[in-house]
Amino acid sequence: MANTSKAPANGGGNRGGKGNGGPVTFLEAIKQAMFEEMQRDPAVVVIGEDVGVYGGAFKTSEGLLEKFGWERVIDTPISESAIIGAACGMSYLGLRPICEMQFIDFIVCAFNQLTNFVAKGHYLWNAPAPIVVRGPSGGGVHGGPFHSANPEMYFVHTPGLKVIYPSTPYDAKGLLKAAVRDNNPVLFFEHKYLYRRIKEELPSEDYTVPIGKAAVRREGKHLTILSYAAMMHNSLEAAEALAKEGIEIEVIDLRTLLPLDEETILKSVKKTNRVLVVHEDTKTGGIAGEIAAILCEKAFGDLDGPVFRVTALDTPVPYSPPLEEHFLPNTQKIVAAAKELARY
Amino acid sequence: MRKELTRQQHLDLYYYMRLNRAVEDTMVKLFRQNKIVGGLYSSLGQEAISVGTAFALEKKDWIAPMIRNIGALLVKGVPPRDIFTQHMAKYTSPTLGKDGTSHFGDLEKLHIVSPISMLGDLIPVMTGVAMAGRYLGQKIVAMTWIGDGGSSTGVFHEGLNFAATQKAPFVLILENNGWAYSTPVRRQVPLENLADRAKAYGITSYIVDGNDVADVYSTAKEAVDRARAGEGPILIEAKTFRRMGHAQHDPAEYVPKEMREYWEKRDPILLHKKFLTDKKLLDAKTKKEIEGKIEALLSKDRDFAEDSPMPPPELAEQGVYCTGDDCHKIRAKWERPIAEVTPPKSIIDASWVVEGFGRGKSSGGAQAPIHFGDTAQSEERKEVEEKLAPAGPVEIVTEKVGAAKSAKNAASNGRKAEKARADKDFPRGSGQADATNRNGVAKVVAKSVKAAAKAPAKSLARKGRR
């Protein structure tokens, strides 16, 4: 994926006035969201490993401790279950904790706490748990098998959670704010490849981006690419390349994986009749399979060809650059698949 | 300590233990009539723990019961009908039939967090409850229970360790009933007293006779008061015995006959009744009144549960998500000025001060913090270190430690004010690891000195997770 200096068009809502500070990175957008939410509501606290004095492994919480103090920026031991569990307990008294997983790979250390305790509370005993669990995810930076994960689908399979995976600074900020204000537990995945590689001008005033709404990033008529996070940018690149060959691709950024915006997907399929799903997650059990099933159930008549997928391989994320590059989807793979699909 | 209790308190403890047992006796009957949908777990012989500990709490305090803590629910104010309808999976139950047993809670009025079947998970959750209560200025205490079996889970450790580092107002009752399903405690934990687990977290612990309700109550009361006063989490091991199997289906033939007989003679209700009778606190008339009250309440509540409908099937689809303010208005109840936790008042110098680790960002040179050497130590610990004090080249290291220490002491006066503030803001660790290995200690000291000479603050603050 090439460095994207210019952010893609924003698909959702009125953006309002531009900020004065110039374009900001994805990482800065997340920092701003946390800062502004803590400023807005004293019930918002940040909890995680090294989030305080150090400001987070990626410096996403830098400056929060200085401004809001020890009680609101809580450094913890290396205890992911304790972080999630304590955040859940805090939320029962009306707080809105933002938990940081130093790398999102470590979220599985708190799997039971999240899937059994946090996710089921509202359904079983009417106890909402307004917590956000956020952290850096994704590959492409040679982080190796334990620092490159895309574990979103473990949680998309868990009723009671919401799962967000943004691709632009604007969305990252707006969706993180929406997540903090949401009464449900929200997992917020931040693709670390995007952290410092893309910039975008953000509105100076408060805004949110609605959870559960996809965004049409590029209009097209020949086929639809559904993607999210870093792969959304590769999909746009592929669409640009194929436009030169006369193939007009519609690119949809899913943004939220749970709940999935079926309406936007189905509307696009009605128009283009061909669907390619692109994700960096591994193939088996990835969201592409779920989307293919939804299309079979609800849009079979609209399809002119099979649903294609371009995904990572069904292996752990390998460390060595040639291996990781082979493992990951990329623009060339998307172009090839899109060309084949366009022939139907 | 027993004289601290009034007659009424003694009678209340008796009432709740009797109610606890009567509720469970009723459920055994319902179970045998096939009216209980799932499993039925018994706290027979453990009533003094649930009742005595919960009785030590104030109304505003929070609890999270385990499966054998029906008594705690009753003390907290849960009506028996809720317990019956839960077990019978009725639409009128607190969870509308979505979950059974004691798996229900009440965030608004009674301050009860629902347990889940995975043991230990409540410990970090109640730590969070305690932290939030402190943050909001509510002066509450959070309490939960764990069994001897559950004390071996990973999340027990994560939760209690975190609670200790945070000095959370949290009381954990460890009910050692001797058995985790069929596995005796000796095969789970190589400790005589499970209270010793508290040492690993640097927290206070108590051991009580779990079948003596007055002992349980007065110990719990002391623990709750201390936790509320800011002394940090407290662990109470209550020694008792599980007289029934793991659940109704389990005849528990693996339990030695003698063990069962011993504990049957130590029935907590009988013991307390004998105490009350001996002290002339319970006469025949009062006893009859209590029994009558319980019988009337349970027969009414049992009828209510039996007459209640099952939930409509479509209910299964509802309630996965909170839909917003129309569903739940989530508002923190502030009992301290919000200004204290918002800028400009919340603005601080973002560097830690931890005993034995000096001051975070600005430490350097001669003031460098040393891991061992300048930490306040227990006498016991000093003895161990003296014994282990290495000879030869490493002695130089020891000298360096000493030098750095005195340099730090000299510089420490000017930092006292800061330190006092940070101590208040940031719960300190005890900084006392057990020195068990000669080489280990020498190595760490040498390494610390080396690190201190270069870039002390950074090298100690970094965690090296990758």
CATH architecture of the largest domain in chain B: 3-Layer(aba) Sandwich
Element order of chain B: H for helix, E for strand: HHEHHHEHEEEEHEHHHEEHHHHH
Largest interface: A-B, 63 and 70 residues
Radius of gyration of chain B: 26 Å
CATH class of the largest domain in chain B: Alpha Beta
Q: In total, how many domains does the architecture of chain B comprise?
A: 2
Low-confidence stretches of chain A: 1-17
How many beta-strand elements of chain A?
14
Mean pLDDT over all positions of chain A: 94
Class per helix and strand makeup of chain A: alpha/beta
Strand content of chain B: 5-15%
Q: What can be said about the biggest beta sheet of chain A?
A: 7 strands, mixed
Task: Identify the CATH homologous superfamily of the largest domain in chain A.
Answer: Thiamin diphosphate (ThDP)-binding fold, Pyr/PP domains
What gap, in angstroms, lies between the N and C termini of chain B?
A: 52 Å
Question: Can you tag this structure with a few keywords?
Answer:
heterodimer, A: 344 residues, alpha/beta, Rossmann fold, 2 domains, seven-stranded mixed sheet, five-stranded mixed sheet, 12 helices, 18% strand, globular, disordered N terminus, B: 466 residues, five-stranded parallel sheet, two-stranded antiparallel ribbon, 15 helices, disordered C terminus
